[in-house]
Automatic annotation (TrEMBL):
GO terms for biological process: translation. GO terms for molecular function: structural constituent of ribosome. The keyword Ribosomal protein applies. Residues 45-76 have a biased composition (Low complexity). GO terms for cellular component: mitochondrial large ribosomal subunit. This is Large ribosomal subunit protein mL49. Its main location: mitochondrion.
Amino acid sequence: MFRPATLLRALAAPARQILLFPQAAAVSAPSTLLIRRCLATAATTTTTTPTTPSSTPSDPTTPQTPSSQSATATPSPEKKSNAHAWKYHLLRVRRRAAKAAAAKAALPFHVSRTPSAELPVYTLAKRGGNKKLTTIKKIDGDRAALGAQLAADLGLEVGGKGVVVNARTGHLVVEGHRAAEVKQWLTDKGF
């Protein structure tokens, strides 16, 4: 019989995994991660050593000496999960979105967040790194109004070079690497 630590080492190496468990090749990556986590928690749990009949006194009235007592393993602290931190992060994002709902209703545009709750603001370098652009994606509503307000607040020109709306993709392209400024501006607007 394998000990949990041996199984954990066997699953950690891909070559051993194929040799020990040939059916593991058909198992998806999330399943193997779940198996590894289960084995890791099994490896961290402690067990007590069973007492043998020779080590226990035959007469219950006789006192036990410290040397005759059976030794038990001290429990090790369990690893804490970070699931609560992720739930708290999502709760903060939802509260922020609910609090800023009134501000969003007054604006003629809306910028949706990504599935990981980040703002869809990306930087891009073209022409060998000489042309730097910042792109805002996931815009709903009046893109021209968003471009005009952003240009006015950041001190850029609308149209020509400062802020341009890509008609084909619907993205807003800002000249220069201004991702931090644009993200701060969108956060201040309540997105």
